[in-house]
Each structure stands twice: as C-alpha cells, then as structure tokens.
Amino acid sequence: MGTTPDDRVVVVTGAASGIGAAAGRRFVHGGARVVLADIQGKAVSQLATELGPAARALRTDVAAEKDVAAAVDLALSEFGRLDVMFANAGVFGAYGPIHSADMAAVDATWAVDLRGVFLCLKHAARVMRPSGHGVIIVTTSPAAVTGGVGNHAYSAAKAGIIGLMRSVAAELRSHGIRVNAVMPGPTVTPMNADLSTGDVTAVDRTVELLAARTDGKRPAFAEDIAEAVHFLASPSAEMITGHTLVVDGGFTTIAGDSQWTKGKNAMGGGIFEAGRRWPSQAHL
After folding, report:
1. What is the three-class DSSP state of 250?
2. Check: CATH 1.10.10.10 for 5-256?
3. Is the pTM of this model over 0.85?
4. Which of 51, 55, 150, 278 is the most exposed place for a label (fewest CB within 10 A)?
C-alpha cells in the first residue's frame, strides 16, 4: 500500500517557475513534502523558503545524472522515501531551418528535454521499485503531435517523451508504479512570455496573446496544469497509467468552431451522394 494523499513525498524538476513552481505549491498546500529541483538555484531556493518546512530546494541540472540522483536522494534523506516524481524541466531550445541546424544546440536541447526526463524515470524507478509503489509524471507538449507548434529539436524530444513514458509504464506497472504524461497547451509561464514577447516578465501581454490563440477564451495558467498533475498523482487516478492527459482547452484536437452548426447551416440538413441535399424542412 502507498501513503495517504496528504503524506506523499514528491520531487519536482523545473520547479523554479511556471508549471513546476505551481505544481510544487499545489503539492505542499495539499500536505505533501516536496524537493524542488531546478538549475536556477537562487529562484528555487526562494520558492522553498516561501513554502516553508515541507519544501527543500536543490540546484539541479537534469542533463547531469549525478544531479538527478542527488535530488532523489535528498527526498530519501530528508523525508524518508519518494512517492511522486514530476519530471517537468524543459527548454524550448534550438530553432531554425533543418538544413542549417546547429547540432550543438540541438544536442543541448535533447540533453535537457529528453535525457533529463529519462534520468528522472531511471532514478525514480531506482527507489520506487523496492517500495512497490509510486507515480511518475512527465511533461510533453502539443508539439509532440502537431507540426509547426514547436521547433524541430523540441518537437522530437516531446514526441520521444510520450514513447518513453509508455515504454516505462509497461515495465513498471507490475511493480505498482504508474507512469503518465501531461500535455499542456498554450500556458502562461515565463518561458512562454519570453517566446511570445521577448520579456519573461510580460505576463499580462502573454495572457492577451495566448487568449487570441484560444478563440478569445482565457489561456491556461500554470495552476491549471498543476491541478492536472495533482490529479494524476492521486489515488483518484489509480487506474490510469501509460496515458497522456491533454490539458489545452481543445488546442490540439479542435481546429475551430464547427462551420456546420451555425449561419446557413444552423437549420440542419444533409449532404449525400453526388451533391444530393436533404433539406431539414422536407420531413416537416
């Protein structure tokens, strides 16, 4: 048996800002104890101070195996175990045309976005297998399944994360460990503020720009994604593994409002072979 929802020990990577910080807050506010891991050492330490004695901070480069191992070991030494790993750290990374790709930048992108997730899975499994329980959640992106959303290196890494998640879920299921992915759509975070405006602090403008991509509805906020992660980590999701939970307000699967339900089509009807029409009035 695992621990109760309010007594879990969690490691969150990419925890200094955005989705990672929101997830760290959500877990702590729910009663969990959390190791906040991020390469931005000062920022993640400030968050741990804000969250109090239930949080620990560790400067962590997820591309370095010793750093990922250290984050997991800190959970063990400080809190006695590891129940949840949220492998969230990622960068947008290398961009530009495929024919002129800077392979050093591509490799650096993959080191964080794919190798980093692989290492989180490895070291979470290292300590979860002996305990016979645990939850691992990884962050992917619509760029994994939709062309043109992200750059080439990022898109490849995020697609790879889905395949990796399913493969590891198949291995660890018999050990009582669930492995899932969360796929955020356009979300208001410092990284997206930087991508949208060139200014990581331009939150209000980012809200406006991302809302325009969701037909004027509000964009997702980091707290929305944190709620999804918290659900996947909870006993309520006990039968969910090997799954990608899309949290994007329809961005990935809905191209736009249906033209077949409004305007001249609002009265209903049908189109059949050779252009034959079925007026809705014909059977009145």
Report:
1. coil
2. no
3. yes
4. 278
